[in-house]
Amino acid sequence: MPELPEVETTLRGIAPHLTGHVVSNIIIRNAQLRWPIPQSLPVLLRGHRVRNLQRRAKYLLVHFDHGTLILHLGMSGSLRILTAVTAPDKHDHFDLVLNNGVIMRLRDPRRFGAVLWHEGEVSEHPLLVKLGPEPLQEEFNGEYLYRITRSRNTAIKLLIMDNHAVVGIGNIYANEALFRAGIRPQLSAGKLSRPRCAKLVAVIRATLSESIALGGSSLRDYVDSDGKQGYFQQHYWVYGRGNEACKKCGAPIRQIKQGQRSSFYCPICQN
DNA sequence: ACATCTACCTGGAGGC
DNA sequence: TGCCTCCAGGTAGATG
């Protein structure tokens, strides 16, 4: 499923095909995503030029002069660039058609994604306004993590997955980063020392950056904008490896539930 | 303010 | 083969 590196990879894949081109049509085949796709989109966008694209957390932002198209891939969404008319799949819910013939097509089998429109400053949109810092920007550093975790009793894994604390870290990368930092997922956030906060920030950065460099990806149903599968899933230390041997020490990886989600950790390497 | 839980949705896997 | 149940997941919104 698309985590931050996949969204970033998707952005890089689609941006060159969209930027500077004019929308000739919008096709909504199924508006029932997480929120309904606005039926006014074709009228709003036809004849308008795409200025630039941007990522904020896991949102893709397509900027126009008069507003911003906000896209979210949910957990099964993907965007593809088509250069010829192609029959839509059952789960191809939305097309943005440009006047050079290029089509950006959204496929989302589980329909947890979103396509929304916002006029004015997009960072003030209700979905974006409360978001924490980007994990790859300087604002997210050891001191920041130390400060926001003081007097927090929440498990550290739940905290780093909380968008108010830091954006873009889903279940897979949370598990992987905690393994690499040597921190148990259930450790109370407020008990993390300053050096361990610094370490955790460093490995979150490294894990995300490496994945972006690899071209993104995690789940089998993620397809990037060229239609090729990503391959980060071959590099997991703990995610999805319950009862298998730790790649570092050989101990069996433990699987537990935290906040209704699976967590994986090595009982020897993580404390 | 914080912690915890629920809902949304579909496809794939495993059991029988 | 088919039917059933469980699981995966982001995140807003409700509840405690």
Please tag this protein with its features.
single chain, 271 residues, alpha+beta, four-stranded antiparallel sheet, DNA-binding
Protein model, in words:
The protein is an alpha+beta fold and about 270 residues long. The protein has helices at about 5-20, 40-45, 140-150, 155-160, 170-180, 195-215, and strands at about 25-30, 50-55, 60-65, 65-70, 80, 90-100, 105, 115-120, 255-260, 260-265. A 4-stranded antiparallel β-sheet has the order 1-6-7-5. The chain has a 4-stranded antiparallel β-sheet with strand order 2-3-4-8, with helices on one face. A hairpin with a 2-residue loop joins strand 9 (about 255-260) and strand 10 (about 260-265). Helix 1 (about 5-20) packs across helix 6 (about 195-215), helix 3 (about 140-150) crosses helix 6 and helix 5 (about 170-180) crosses helix 6 (about 195-215). The longest helix is centred in the C-terminal third of the chain and has 21 residues, at about 195-215. It is elongated. Mean pLDDT is about 90; it is low at about 215-230. The chain binds a DNA duplex (16 and 16 nucleotides) through loops.
